[in-house]
Hints:
This protein is an alpha/beta fold and 255 residues long. The chain has 2 domains: 4-102 and 215-248, Periplasmic binding protein-like II (D-Maltodextrin-Binding Protein, domain 2, 3-Layer(aba) Sandwich), CATH 3.40.190.10; 106-210, 3-Layer(aba) Sandwich (D-Maltodextrin-Binding Protein, domain 2). It is built from 11 helices and 10 strands. It is elongated.
Amino acid sequence: MRNPLRLFLAAGLLAVLVPPSIWAADVRILAINPMRGPLSGLADTFGRDTGHRVEFVFGVPNDLIKRLTGGEAADVVMFTRTEFEGVMKTGKVVGGSRVEVGRVGVAVMVRAGTVAPDVSNPDALKKALLDADSIAFNQRASGTYFAGVLDRLGIAAEVKGKTKRPEADAGVFEHVRMSKGKDLGILSVAAIMGDGGKTVRMAGPLPGKLQSYEPYIAGLTTSARSPDAAKAFIAFLTSPQTKATLAKRGVEQAK
């Protein structure tokens, strides 16, 4: 019979002698485009702390879901709550693994270098929208919500002729970046802040009761190749240090 103490000591010695990189795992994460800015640099931080290697794959929701259900390798997915619930129905995500990383509001943006209008209260926002030369918002969650805001402000019909509805965030960014006058774009706070002020700037979040927050959810896939490392990364996303970093990038914690 083998000596249990000797086996224990041998295992301990092996752990000391073998470099941590030997145990390192690769974690592949499918995340929607608005999370590109908030997640910037976090792979390096997590890698330094754990030795694991993280690869982010960003894209639009429908494309990412299609790739996941088509068998593309992934360990973690990150979507808005609505999109995450859709992914759950595919059976590709472990049900009990969902974690709310934070929530993201909706904001107004203008081209960098231009004067931003006051949008700090409903009346000011209404005036800014009526004065704008154009208003661009996508055909996704934030854009659908904002269409309702125009109805609530009672100006949907009045501004209909100058609204632009690109399908995704990229089209909204492009419209505002190429603008020449008083043109506004509506996107999630995280997406706007992800630009870093290089081509667009945030005029401000939607005010008061006109604001809407979309929770961002992370979860473990049922086909994860490195489930333990993937769980460690999800836990890392909810650590106090990471929460503080995300908050500075437009992903705040529910109050």
